[in-house]
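During the no-cost extension, the postdoctoral fellow (Dr. R.K.) reprocessed legacy sequence entries with the updated structure-token encoder. One reprocessed record is reproduced below for audit purposes.
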Amino acid sequence: MKTFTASTLAFMATLLPAIHAAPAYIPWAYNPSVPGIHNKTIAANEGTFYINKNVTARCPDYDPDCPAKNTTIITGPTYSLDSSEDQWWMGILEPGGQTLFTGARLHGALQYAAAASGNQIDYRDNPRGFLSTGNATTGGLKLMGSGNDFAACPNGDGSYTVQVEETLPQGCTRFEMVLEETHAPAVQYYQCVGCEDRCYTNRCSGKYE
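Re-encoded structure tokens follow.
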């Protein structure tokens, strides 16, 4: 029978958070009083989240027509010993991941970092500690930002930008971002043209524009 020393067990324990993959979800909007957004999926489009926009995802080279190419998948949270480091991510295959954050320069819009950028974002944005789960009206889980629900803010073309509803902007509508667990295969990454401009170091390559 194989035995393990105390040091071996301690080392294995440090690997558990990495071994245990976080669940993956498809986010969608819940507000029955607003048909224009109700039951609509949330779209990751060029670095920001929208309702009524196309998803900008890149499939793996070995599967250029991957089944999830029109689907937004997020995953999380990932945990650390410091709770301020808990984080949510895009559900992708690309090494390094794409972290979610709120864009301070875009009035709290929900955004994601560019792939292969080292997850660098502008220092004024908030990369961690703001996203959490709560109980949705539907009975499932919902994503929340700073303890608040989200707001759909019209862009004039039938689409809506997703913002944290800390203070509901004029003309915007509150909704619950419901999380539907999925086992759909991940895409390679979500495109983010111009996202490298958020960076304030020279670590961003611009490779994935």
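The first strand starts at residue 24 and ends at 30. Residues 6-19 form the longest helix (14 residues). The remaining legacy entries will be reprocessed before the final report is submitted.
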